[in-house]
């Protein structure tokens, strides 16, 4: 599978959940950053979750770009967490320094 689907939803509590489905490649990180940025500007959420339970593949080198997206949200005052990572995705994100964002 070589595509990425990004599906954002807003819970009644105001929490935004961004579900990633498929494969996250380096080329996709710009779209991910733009999507998260637009959600932050539009909704100004206090909490955002990035659900990676359907993320099948994280291309090498993309974990650092995901960490940058997480850091941007945090600097905007939004609590952001990565939920439901597979052991492989968790290891990749942890090695990039995103351990503090993993739920």
Would you give an account of this structure?
- The chain is α/β, with parallel strands linked by helices.
- The protein has a single domain, classed as Transcription Regulator spoIIAA, CATH 3.30.750.24.
- It has helices at 29-43, 63-75, 87-95; strands at 4-10, 16-24, 47-58, 79-83.
- It has a 4-stranded mixed sheet with strand order 1-2-3-4, covered by helices on one side.
- Helix 1 (29-43) links the parallel strand 2 and strand 3 (47-58).
- The protein starts with a strand and ends in an 8-residue tail after the last helix.
- The model has no long low-confidence stretch (mean pLDDT 93).
- It holds the Pfam family STAS_2.
- This is STAS domain-containing protein.
- Residues 14-103 form the STAS domain.
- InterPro entries: MlaB-like_STAS (IPR058548), STAS_dom (IPR002645), STAS_dom_sf (IPR036513).
Instruction: Give start-end ranges of low-pLDDT stretches.
Output: none
Strand-residue fraction? 25-35%
Specify the CATH architecture. 2-Layer Sandwich
Instruction: Count every helix, treating DSSP H or I runs of 4 or more residues as helices.
Output: 3
Large-scale geometry? globular
Return the domain count.
Answer: 1
CATH class, named Alpha Beta
Q: What structural category characterises the helix and strand content?
A: alpha/beta
**Radius of gyration, in angstroms, nearest whole number:** 12 Å
- The CATH H-level homologous superfamily: STAS domain
Which series of helices and strands comes N to C? EEHEHEH
C-alpha termini separation: 26 Å
Helical fraction equals 25-40%
Mean pLDDT, as a whole number? 93
CATH-derived topology: Transcription Regulator spoIIAA
Major sheet summary line: 4 strands, mixed
**Main sheet: which strands, in order across?**
1-2-3-4
- The total of beta strands comes to 4
């Amino acid at each position: 599978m070589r595509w990425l689907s990004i599906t954002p939803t807003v819970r009644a509590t105001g929490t935004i959940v961004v579900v990633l489905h498929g494969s996250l490649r380096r080329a996709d990180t710009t779209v991910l950053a733009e999507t998260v940025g637009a959600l932050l500007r539009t909704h100004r959420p206090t909490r955002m979750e990035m659900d990676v339970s359907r993320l099948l593949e994280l291309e090498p080198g993309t974990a650092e770009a995901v960490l940058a997206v997480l850091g941007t949200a945090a600097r905007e005052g939004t609590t952001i967490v990565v939920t439901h990572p597979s052991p492989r995705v968790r290891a990749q994100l942890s090695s990039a320094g995103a351990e503090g964002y993993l739920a």
